[in-house]
Structures are given as structure tokens and as C-alpha cells.
Amino acid sequence: MRAIIGLGNPGTQYARTRHNVGFWVIDALVKKTNAQRGTTKFPALVHETHLGDTKVLLVQPQTFMNDSGKAVGPLSRFFGITGEDLLIVYDDVDLQLGELRRRDAGSAGGHKGMSSIIVALGTEDIPRLRIGIGSNRDAGLSSEAYVLQQFEKEEVVVIEKSIDEAAAVILGQETAAE
User: Fold this and answer.
1) I need a labelling partner for 51 at 20 to 30 A (CA). Which of 3, 57, 118, 149 fits?
2) Model confidence pLDDT, tens digit, residues 121-162
3) Burial class (CB within 10 angstroms; exposed 0-12, middle 13-18, buried 19+) of 160
4) Which domain holds residue 59?
């Protein structure tokens, strides 16, 4: 069994913000794989599907971003899923808008949601796929204010394309830069 965890914030007021691109990828995967619609557990929305012979959980934590580990830790322990069998998908202000970057392990790089997961699991050996949301420095905002903004109209086309690319990477149809 594997789990793909898309990070974001629960609630309609956050649904289309930069910080929720991880949720968008899970939504895309649910559609592309015809996954069973989710139930709330651990506190997370958990969808079930199969990729080949492997059962895969598509997960949207319902904690706020900075507390993502409070959902991922219990879920991982309950299902016996180790760090290597996870893939965490989240936003990154240090990548250009729409850029994808995959790593198999490493520090949180300042991302508080990823940091919470690393603490909850006790390891940095967790694969992740980061999606560039553009830089807050260009916008003249703090990181906290920037990630809670919606994308500008002209950015939506780019980010929607990157969401499709991220889903394709996860499904093994493309590769992302390491």
C-alpha cells in the first residue's frame, strides 16, 4: 500500500489559494483514477484507488497546513505505510510558477507543512513533489500572506497545466526534475 498526500488548508476560503495546490493534485488524481470518493479519517479526507496492483490512498489532510503531521502520522501508523511509501505534494515559493521538482528525501526547506510531517514520522526519508507557485519576493508580500492569495488570472493557466503534469508524474506518465 502507498499513500499520496496533497497538502493544503481545509475550508472554502482557502480552496483556490496558492497553498492548496497539493489538494488540487489529489482532486486531479481522484478524477484520473476513478478513485472512490473519500471518507474522513485521521483527520484527513482519504480516497482509495489502485495503481496497477498497488492499493493507493489519495489523502487531503483536514488539519491546517502547519499541522499536516497530525493527520499523516496516525494515518501512516494505522496502515503501516513507511516514509518511502508516501509521496507528499505541496507548494513551493522558491520554484518558478508551474515548475515541478521531485526529491526522495531531505529537509523541509522551510515549508512548515513538510516540517510537521518529518517530525510526526521521525524521518526526512520521505519522497515529495513540490510545485512552484512563484515568489513572494516578486509580489512584495510575506510568505504567509502570499501563499494564502489566489492566483492571478494569467497564472491560473500555468498552474492548472502544472497540476496536470504533476498528476502525470505521479501516475508514471512523465518525470519531474530532481
Assistant:
1) 118
2) 999 999 999 999 998 887 788 989 999 999 999 999 999 999
3) middle
4) 2-170
d(CA 178, CA 77): 28
Does a structural domain hold residue 55?
A: yes
Q: Report the domain count for the chain.
A: 1
| 33-69: pLDDT as tens digits | 999 888 887 899 999 999 989 999 999 999 999 999 9
Domain-embedded: residue 144: yes
CA distances from 107 to 15, 46, 113, 117, 162 (A): 27, 26, 12, 11, 23
19 is catalytic: yes
Residue 20 lies inside a defined structural domain of this protein: yes
In a domain, 52, yes or no: yes
Grid cell locating 52: 496497477
